[in-house]
Structure formats: C-alpha cells, structure tokens
Amino acid sequence: MVTAAAPDRSIEADPRGRGTQPSATATLLAPVRRRLIVACVVQAIAAVAGVVPFIAVAEIGRALLADNPVDTSGSGLGVWWIAGLAVAALALRLICLLGAGALTHFADVDLQLDLRRRMAAHLTQVPLGWFDARSAGLIKTALQDDVKALHHLVGHAYVNLISAATTPIVALAYLFWIDWRLTLIALLPVLGGVVLYALQYRGYGENMAAYTRELGAVNAAAVEFVQGIAVIKTFGRARQAYGRFIERTSAFVEFFWNWMRGLLAISAAAEVILSPLAALLTALAGGLVLVSAGAMAAIDVIPFAVLAPALTAPFLTLAYSQNELMLATKAADRIAELLATKTLPHPGEGRRPVDARVVFDRVSFAYDDRTEVLHEIDLVLEPGTLTALVGPSGSGKSTLARLLPRFWDVGAGSISIGGVDIREMTPETLYRSAAFVFQHVQLLQTTIGENIALGRPDATAAEIEAAARAAQIHDRIAELPRGYASVAGQDARLSGGEAQRISIARAILADAPVLVLDEATAFADPEAEAAIQTALSDLVAGRTVLVIAHRLHTVTEANAICVMDEGRIVERGRHGALLAAGGLYARLWEASEAALTSRAEAAQ
Amino acid sequence: MIGALLSVSGLEGQRPLRRNLWGLVGDSVLLGIGFALLVPFLRALMEDRLGDATTWLLVMTGLLAGYAVLRYATQLAGYRAAIALGRTLFARLGTHIARLPLGWFGVERVGQIGHLTSQGVIDVIGVPAHLLRPLISALVTPATVILLMFLFDWRLALAALITTPLIALAYRWTGRLTARSDHGVHAAGTEAAGRLVEFAQAQPILRAFGESQRGLGTLDAALRASHAAARAQMLAVASGLVGMVAVVQLTFTVLLLFGANLALGGEIDAAEFVALLVLAVRYVEPLLGAAELGGALRIARNSVERMDALLATPPLPEPATPRPPEGAEIRFDGVHFAYDTRPVLEDLSFTAPERAMTAIVGPSGSGKTTVLRLIARFWDAGQGAVRIGGVDVRDIGTEALMARISVVFQDVYLFDGTIAENIRLGRPEATEAEVAEAARLARVEEIAARLPGGLEAAVGEGGAILSGGERQRVSIARAILKNAPIVLLDEATSALDPVNELGVQAALRALTRDKTLVVVAHRLQTVRAADRIVVLDAGCVVEEGRHDDLLALGGRYAAFWNERHRAAGWHLAPAR
After folding, report:
1. Partner-chain contact B525 A597, CB within 8 Å
2. Does B281 sit within 8 Å of A1, measured CB to CB?
3. How far is the C-alpha of A320 from the C-alpha of A315, rounded, in Å?
4. Do B216 and A121 touch (CB under 8 A)?
5. Which helix (DSSP H) or strand (DSSP E) does residue A421 occupy?
6. What's the whole-number average pLDDT of chain A?
7. For A418-472, what is each residue's pLDDT tens digit?
8. Cβ distance of A264 and B206 shorter than 8 Å
9. CA nearest to B227, candidates A252, A282, A148
10. Which chain B residues are closer than 8 Å to A320 by Cβ?
11. What is the pTM of this model?
12. CB-nearest partner of B493 from A240, A524, A604
C-alpha cells in the first residue's frame, strides 16, 4: 500500500536556490550521506513492494474473470500464488520501511549531536564580540531548535521523495503494460493538478514574504504590549496600547483572509481534481468509453480501478509537508551561516611575552567596516602601573579595553604584551598573561571552588581559600550548605555583589601580570560596595592594570588617566595636571562634583 | 481537542465552528458513497451491462460534483471560522493581559506571551483552517465506506470492522510510548539547552581564563545525554510504529486472503472482490493519514492549553464603586506580602507624608522595591492594607490610582517611536509646547540636539539608540508631563557617566518638586536629603526617622551610613 508515503519535493528544491543552498545543506548532511543513500535504496524497495499487492488484487480479479477459466482448481492455484506473493511483498515492505526509518532516524539523532558539537566547537573560536550582537537565546535557537528542525529533512524528506517517485512509476509501468491509451487518460488529473498547483504557487514568494512580515508585526506588537505593560498601565494607556495590538492583529487577520480567499477557488479545485475519487472516475470513464468502443476488454479496466487513485496521492501529501520542509531548509541555512562565521586566527606555536609591558600601537577599529570607532590609538601600559580610561559614554573606552582579550581583532595597528603581538600568542599564553574582570559577572553552574579555580584548575583547596579570603568572600562561602562544594545557582544563591567578589577571587588566583578591570560595578550591590573595594585593592596590587573608570574619584591616584572622546585619547596625564589643564577632564570632573552635590538639593 | 477549541473561542466563536464541522461531515459522507458505488459500477461493467455502468458513473460524477461544491463551501466556512477564531483569541488574550497584575510580568513571561499571542494563535486557527478537514474526513469517510460495505458483503465488512480496534489500539499505544519517553527527551533537552546558554554566555569568562575546552566538556556531556535520550525514544516508539504498520498491513492481508477465498468459492463475484479491496484501501489509508496529523494537532493543543492557563490567571480585582483618595499621603498598615511562598514583607507599617520625600534603605532582599510595587498595585498585599489619602489602593480603581502615580523605574522601556511620542505618552492631550517644556526640564532637549530630527528622532525598538541614562531622562520627561501628585522612584544602582548623572539629577529635581516622593535610595546624598528615612531589614521596619536623628541613634542606619561613606571615598591605588 502507498499509505505511509508522505512525499514532498525536498531535493527537487526550487530552482532559484540551486546556486548555493543545496551545497550548504549537502555540506551539513555530509556525515550521514552514506546512510541516507542506503535508506533511500531500502525505501525504494519498500515502495515497489508496496505496489505489488495492488497489482496482485488486479491480477486476481483478472484471473477470476478470465474469459475461459481453466478448471477451477488451476485458477484457484494461480490465485493463491498471486495472493501469496502479495503477502510476501507486504512483509518485505514492512521490513524495508522499518529499515529505512531506523536508518534515517538514527542518522538524524547522530547528525544532531555532530552538528551541535561542531557548532559549539566553532563558538569557542569566533570573536567574543560576536556574542555581544547576539543574545544567548538566539544562540540557543540555532544550536537547539534549528538543529531539531532538520529532523524533517533528514528523517523524512529524502525517503518520502523516493517513495513518492517510485510508487507512481511502478504503477504507471504496470498500467502501460495493460493498456497505454487508458493510462494516458488516467494521467489527466495529474496534469490538471500540476497546472493548478503552478497557478496556486504563482506569487507565493511575495505572499509568503508578506505573511512573514505581518506575523513579525504581530509578534512585535505583542512583545511591545507585554514589555511596555508597566509603562502602559502606569500612564493609564492600557486601552490605547491594547488598541494598537488589536489593530496590528486585525491587519494580520485581514491579510491572511485575503490571501486564503484569493487562493481558495484554485486550491479547492486542485484538491478536488487530485482527490482519489476524481482519479478513479477519470480512469473509469475512460475505460467505459474504450470498452464501449470495443477497443479494450472490460477486465483490463480492473487494474485501473485499483491503481488510479495511487497516481495522484503523492501530490496531496507533498502539499501538506511543504511547510515543514521550508522551515527545515531555513534552519539549515542558519546553521550553515553560523558555521561559516569567521573565527579568530590562532598561531600553531605562539611566542611568549618577556614582561608585562602592554603597547597599543596606532590601533584603529570598526565594528562593521564602515564607522570606525577607534582612531589610531597609541597607549603604553608600563609594568606595575595603573592606567585609567575615562570619558563620556560612547567614547570608545570599553571597546579599547576589550581588544586586549581579543573580543575582536584590531582593524589596523597592533596590541602587544611583553613585545609579542597578541595575535601571535596561543590563547593559553594570552590568557595566562592577562586576566579580566568584567562588568557582567558570569558564574558557571558548577561548584564555587571550581568557579574560583577557573584560571588555574590545578589550584589546591588552600590556594582557592586564600584567594576567596583576599576577595572578601570566604566567610560568605563558608556559610553555604556545602561550602566550596556548593553549586552556583543550585544551593549557592549569590547576590550580584557576591558574584562580583567570586570573579575577583578568580582573577586573584589566576595571578596574571596584566589585569583589565571594568569598574562599572559601583552600585551593583551597594551594601557590599566596601567589601568589593577591599577585594579590588588587593587584586590590583603589583599588576599592570587598565581600568575603565565610570566614577572619576576612584582613579584620582592612577599613574595615568587617558580621557577618551569619539574614539581618540584627547588628554592624558595625572589627575592634578589634567584638572589644571582645564580641558574635557576638568569639565567631566566638574560635572561629577556637581552631581554629588545636586543630588542633595534635588530632594529639597 | 475540539472541546478545548470551543472553550477558548468564547461563545460567539462557537457557531461558525460547529457549522463548519457539519459541513465537513457532509462532504466526507459524499466521498464515501462515491467510492462505494464502485461495486455496482464494476459489476455492471464486467457483466457487460454498459448502460447501467454509464448510469452508475453519472451518479458517481454527480457525487463528485456535490463533493466539489461542498468542499469549496466548507473550506470557505473553515477560513471564516479560522478568521473569527483568530479575532476572538487576539481580543480575549489582549483584554486579559491588560487586566493582569503588573507583578505577573516577569522577564521570561514576555517572550512566552509574545510567542503565544502570535505564532500560538496561528497554530490554533490552523485547526479550523487546515487540520479539521483531514481529521474529520479520516474518520467519517472510512465509517461511510464500511457501512456501505455491509450492503455488499457483510463478511468482508465485518472483517474490516474487526481490525478497527486494533488500529486504534496501536495508535494509542504508540502515543503512550511517545508520551512516556517524551519526558526523558524533554528533560535531557532542557538540560542541554541550559548548558548551551551557559556555554554561550560564559564564553568571555571561559576564554579569559583559557578554559573554553573545559566548558565544552560539560556541554558535551549534556549533548550526549540528550542524544542518548533521543535514541532511547526512537527505540521505544519504534515498537509502537511497527505495531501500527503491521496492523494496517494485516488488515489488508486478511481482506485479501479472505476475499480471494470467498471469490474462489463463488460467494462473491470478481467485480465485488476488486471493488471491496479498493474500498478497503480507502478505509485504511485515511486512518494512517490522521496519524500523521498528530504532530500539528499536538502543537495546537499545547497552545490552546497555554491560552487556557493564561485566561485562567486571575486579573487584578476592580472595586465595584471606586473611592477617590483625599490627599496623597501613603500609609502601610501591617502589610504582609509573599512571592509564592517566600515571605518578603512582614507586618510592615510606615507613613510617607504628603509633599515630602521618604527614602527607603536596606540591604538587598529586604523588600525595598516590593514596597514601591505594592503602592502601584503591581501586586496586592497578602494581609494589611496600603492606603493613599486614607483609601485602600484596592478601592481606588486602577485608572484613578494610576492617574495619581508616576513611577520611574531602573529599567526604562521606550516604545518604538519618536522621542516626542514617548514623552507624550505621559499626557496624550498635551500641546506641542507642553511636550517641549517637559523635554527641556528633563534635559531631553540636550539629547535631541545631537540626533537627526531632534525630538522627532525615532528611538528604535525599546529605545535602543539611547544610552541607559538618556532613556531614563526621556522616561522622567514623560512623568513630568503627566504631573501626578505621587512619584515612586527606584534609584539606579549602576554608575552613569558624570554628564548623564548630572542630567538625570536635574530631571528628577524638576519632576519631584512639590510631590509626595517615595524613593528606593542608593546614593548617600539622596538619603541625607530625605524628610523621612525608613530602614528595612528582612521585610520589617527596623529604624525610622530623619538622617541626623538616626545617625545619632548609632544603630543600623548609622552603620550603613558609615560603611557607605567610607566606600564613597575609596579609590584604586597603583602598586607602589
């Protein structure tokens, strides 16, 4: 039987995509290609075996009706032979279907694992800045949901296509052998269906694009409605915002209605003409005419009555599975795109820095090849000194600091530590030379001890504890149910300020000679501010430090303060000298002092 | 499924759905009869009664025409029902969401609701638009066919009928196997997804410490577990699917052999044998087709269930007869409040006097922000009452309450529109001049000056083109325009650059003049300037009074003040 066939037009994809898409998909599927080919062969056998029982029914009918039946026993014997063959074919089909299904489905899960591993491994090589532009949710979508969406492609699409092609071909061959004229007549509904489908898919691309756009608008309206709900309600605007939501959704419903309404006549006609009843009727009518004209024996109509519905069946199932196939292809494109993201080049064998002197040499940088955000920055961090980057938001200070741990690579110029360009170091050497404390603290879902020992996995318990003590967090850890063995996020629920101190302990233990510090942690946990400050003081001692300072008074003692504005260092020097110079720094300082006093007046 | 659909579609949405159902049953019956007529047609053809054969063929053609007309009509009705359902769902969900307590909207909820109110609705309206037809036809056509088979030969019909429960059983068995292993697959998938997110988020840290390979290790373990669960599910479900296909093939085999036996015995003629086996295929095939719809139906059902749950979330109760408050004094009377079971406020009582500034201080987790949220009715108090001007906030009515309050949050949300539009949200009927004045007072005009289009510059989704401090100033301008007598302020914990900091402070000064101000305070200067300071710890007031008095008391506040004071004077010192 052709029942389980749910064919679609996976490989015969639309011609527009032929240039690049098949190769992207083919590359993705390469690891399971051989298994898919075997599965297709097995599926083809199943499809042939699936037509045999139909032919058997027709042949039994013909044998029973044969003009001059031989003796009953002989005819009976023939009938039983055919029936036996049909039963055997059914058994073979069952086995082959299972085999092909197992092959494709195991190939699917194996491919999922393989792709996820490849993508994860790739993610460890892309510039860190790449993650800034993408939320973790998006990355999860690619690795989890998109990979899952390939299921239809790998698990079903190819074998279904084989089935959809094989079944009608075998049936047609048999019918041609019976009577070629009636076969041509029986094909008429298929022809009609093809024409109608072609009409239906005219303008499909634009409509689909419009559909996606309208649906996106609905989604945006919903998200805005929910995200802005607090603002909406506190400003008594619930009715208006709701109105906007309803407006967008109505527009969508309207569009959907018009689209479907426009297609309705054609799609209904296509489905009617391809329905098994229409196929059957066409064959029977043709048969009746031929028999009436004496051009055909009545019993030869029987095979057509049995097999005609099987000729159009693939088209209907094809239409149903098209959506899933489209989703799978899109998902494959996104995965291929992720895997094609440029990675940071790393040298095979790196050079080692001789000291902790950091040099930014005419460093320029642009995020998108168009707008340069850093222009020819020259900056030297002498070993053991504290250098502060200050400036208005958007001046480029965070970007400059993030070039050191290679969130991105410089566009022009170079950055070196101890005389070695950071691009010529292995990641291990770079990260052993420089440690980083970021504004956004990330604790791994593992024990607190391992979280601290991240930079030195071989550290002893005593060393970990010493680092925690220096970071003013040991006492808090000791209070946890399992101490250093407590798992972050499970039995160790830490506040922002506590997590911050864990990250400081991490950097203390890593003990790298160069340290990049983002000081925007100021009020993360106002009550713990003093403890964080003590920990930071301990951390910076004796290192070459580059600090992004948001509050000017925290860096008045720095060896050098670099004032950034619009991607350039516009002033540099010590606090006193900069103040006396009366430039941007002096103005910032003034604003900062004014802010301190005005807050008090604000409330009066 | 259909019951659930009727329940979410509301009363007015049910009629088109029901009418559509009957239409679908009708066209499936026509299709069934059309197939069944193959028996008399073939018999007439084989017995060389060509006139009769022509008659039967014409009847069949008539049935096909009837089917085509009904098919068109029901599809149209299906789309109508889908459209009506879509409108109803959007409206019901929208209305309900607008009435839910604000506190209900957590970060993770935003994404879920966004999905539910767009793709979720599409999934559900797909049921009347596309899924109902094959589903109904899969059940009704075979039922018609088998009934008519009884007319021709009761033995073959009975044989076909007997296998029906077997198919149903195999179908349910497969479903149960899937459901059982679904749990494991889902758990492993969730774990792997969590690890993935962690892996991506932790990239800076993992790499900064040269440990990206190790992060890969824990992720890989989760991926392998997920892979193993998927394989296990496949093996489990395979037996069900084998059963299903085997039963279907068995049905056909039995009919083939039984029919051949009857035909050879001369009990049925050859035409009947062929026609009945063709009917048998028509009987079995749609059933299997229905099984393939399972996935889409499951998705739709999940969406319907989540909509049901959302619609069942109790909205914020509104008073029958709202009472306007007299004045703007805020009073907490023995307020208890818990998030789920975690108590946050316990027997909290204090008064924030009218036209004065009350600062709330305390360690993180002491319930400071919750105090603001209860005043604005993000949630309702568990016990006790929050009163404004002597009236319980629950008796004021949401609109009247919100008209009296401006809230300045830490995280500011701006709508995708111009700066002016975002400000105007504070009072839509305000004149251009009033909007411009609010912008001036909140120092927004400085921001507008650097943007093309000035106040008419678009801010992007969520206010993306502005920095945090700038967004805050726009939100303050909005509140200035609204000019409500009560201002609730959650002071930002993050440091702004000095220029922005100064701008925000000027804006706040303009906003809070002559207002009843309750502020969750982090900055020392703010605290010192307050008319009244309420010190919270673990959801209780531990100290209350003016700065000087509290400092002299030498208690919690004094300790807090000294600690913060020391911290404020700290600076990073280079190595010596």
Report:
1. yes
2. yes
3. 9
4. yes
5. strand A420-421
6. 83
7. 999 999 988 778 888 888 887 777 787 788 998 888 878 788 999 999 999 988 8
8. no
9. A148
10. 134, 292
11. 0.73
12. A524
User: 3-class secondary structure for B2-64?
Assistant: HHHHHHHCHHHHHHHHHHHHHHHHHHHHHHHHHHHCHHHHHHHHHCCCHHHHHHHHHHHHHHH
Query: Which residues of chain B have a CB within 8 Å of the CB of A299?
Result: 46
- Among A497, A245, A262, A514, which Cα is nearest to A385's? A514
- Rounded Cα–Cα distance for residues A288 and B336 (Å): 86
User: Do residues A364 and A413 lie in contact, with contact meaning Cβ atoms separated by under 8 Å?
Assistant: yes
Query: Taking CB atoms and an 8 Å cutoff, what residues of chain B touch A285?
Result: 57, 61
How far is Cα A573 from Cα B107, in angstroms, rounded to an integer?
A: 44
In the block, residue with structure tokens 């949220």? B373
Of A191, A168, A205, A131, which Cα lies nearest the Cα of A7? A168
Amino acid (1-letter code) at residue A534: T
CB contact under 8 A, A124 and B498: no
The sign of the CA dihedral B41, B47, B52, B53 is positive
Q: Of the candidates A227, A238, A275, which has its C-beta nearest B110's C-beta?
A: A227
- Contact present, B335 and B386 (Cβ < 8 Å): yes
Output the pLDDT for position B267. 85
Cα–Cα dist A277/B65, whole Å: 11
User: pLDDT tens digit string along A405-422?
Assistant: 888 889 899 999 999 999
Q: Write out pLDDT tens, residues A351-366.
A: 888 888 999 999 999 8
Q: Does B65 touch chain A (CB under 8 A)?
A: no
Q: Using CB atoms, which residue from B34, B117, B238 is nearest to A102?
A: B238
Closest Cα to residue B200, out of B212, B186, B209, B187?
Answer: B212
pLDDT digits (tens, 9 = 90+) for A232-277: 777 766 667 777 788 888 998 899 888 888 888 888 898 899 888 9
What average pLDDT does this structure show over B27-35?
A: 89
Question: Chain B partners of A257 at a C-beta cutoff of 8 Å?
Answer: 79, 83
